[in-house]
Amino acid sequence: MATIVFCSVNKTTQTTARRCLLAPLKKLVRAGESHSSPTLLPGTRWLRFMSHGTAGRTAAGRTRRGALALTGAAAVTAAAVVAGVLANADHFQRAEMATKVSPAAVEREQEGDILERCREFMSPPVSDVAVLQERKGEMCTRMEMLIMQTQAEFCKALQEVDGGTFKVDRWQRKEGGGGISCVMQDGKVFEKAGVNVSVVFGHLTEEAAKQMRSRGKVLKGKDGKLPFCAMGVSSVIHPKNPHIPTVHFNYRYFEIEEEDGSKQWWFGGGTDLTPIYINEEDAFHFHNTLKEACDKHHSQYYPDFKKWCDRYFYIKHRGETRGIGGIFFDDLDSPSQEEAFSFVKSCARTVVPCYLPIVYQHLNDSFTDEEKDWQQVRRGRYVEFNLVYDRGVKFGLATPGSRIESILMSLPLTARWEYMHEPAKGTREAGMLKVLRNPKEWV
């Protein structure tokens, strides 16, 4: 049987890391890495490292299998991970994943080499490359490049583990802008995986403006018109195996021009996990990865945005959260545009390292028909939240020219609704509901 070897690249453990990662990774190790913010290395692949030992088992007797996750995504996703051999493979020791972009990528962004970066994407950007080059220093351009990069990194990492291929679907909005939808259905691992980018502009409808005002936005349009630009990357992944959680993330930027020519802007987004069964090691890994990204910018970001996430992803009519949360924030317009953007970048760069190790951890877990049925019931709850409460879905449906297929991409292929369903006391399903009805701290 096997346990998992995790390695870390930093000043004190470089020698150990090099031994652990062996010859194929020696060239990736760089001197002088910071323990708190290890550098991401471009061009690496997902690798599984196993050492002989006693494998842990789940309560149901299934062998737990782990993986060290290093992405095959382009440019800026690879991970430095904690050194040492796990004493017990049943304990999921969280890999210390980096959220800091590599120096090469920073240099490319600073130099504004738009064309070179675009070659790494799933598709050419929504905006014309020449236009992006022209306004490379503007926030709209920088954010569009970030969301395109995030889409590419995540899609390539998912393709690596699934073996399938994303369908890349470009669409245009006649009112202005468009998007790129990447969807993989009925794969080996993922029943449905969607990673969408949208960049839209035009004028806010009265319905959309009402939603903004309800959030405290004071908007002064000219002749009742409010020019806006909105862009973001959004993803929902529904795995086949009920022991692999569903994950969602969304990072977006909004800009409105008022009648006097001044602009209001803000960022929003977050990443959250929806497991079918509670696994505390997975929960710790997921939340701690997000916490480390938040802590780089402000010590209150993680606790505040974790609470916000629990409040937001709450199904009021069921009295339960959608999952075990993560982080969520909106209307972020301080302390400065540059610092807010830097924080969003850190968050976006956690989407691969906070999720893919969990996928590999449960890739070969067996499951019963009863466990699959419970997954379908929980997916029904997911659908309820998205259609009844989700602000992004509401805004999209209220925006003229929105692409309905992309908005409803978040819905699973299959789900079920059982009348008056309540799991038996003492079961793992009942334990899951207890956590959903009483959110807990995971870190």
UniProtKB/TrEMBL annotation:
Transmembrane intervals: 67-87
GO molecular function annotation: coproporphyrinogen oxidase activity
Pfam family name, one: Coprogen_oxidas
Entry's EC annotation: 1.3.3.3
InterPro entries with a match to the protein in the record: Coprogen_oxidase_aer, Coprogen_oxidase_aer_sf, Coprogen_oxidase_CS
Key words of the record: Heme biosynthesis, Membrane, Oxidoreductase, Porphyrin biosynthesis, Transmembrane, Transmembrane helix
Keyword Transmembrane helix on entry: yes
Gene Ontology CC: cytoplasm
Gene3D superfamilies reported for this sequence: Coproporphyrinogen III oxidase, aerobic
Enzyme class: oxidoreductase
Pathway(s) this gene product operates in, as recorded in its UniProt entry: Porphyrin-containing compound metabolism; protoporphyrin-IX biosynthesis; protoporphyrinogen-IX from coproporphyrinogen-III (O2 route): step 1/1
Reaction(s) catalysed by this chain's protein: coproporphyrinogen III + O2 + 2 H(+) = protoporphyrinogen IX + 2 CO2 + 2 H2O
Family per record: Belongs to the aerobic coproporphyrinogen-III oxidase family.
Protein's name in the database: Oxygen-dependent coproporphyrinogen-III oxidase, mitochondrial
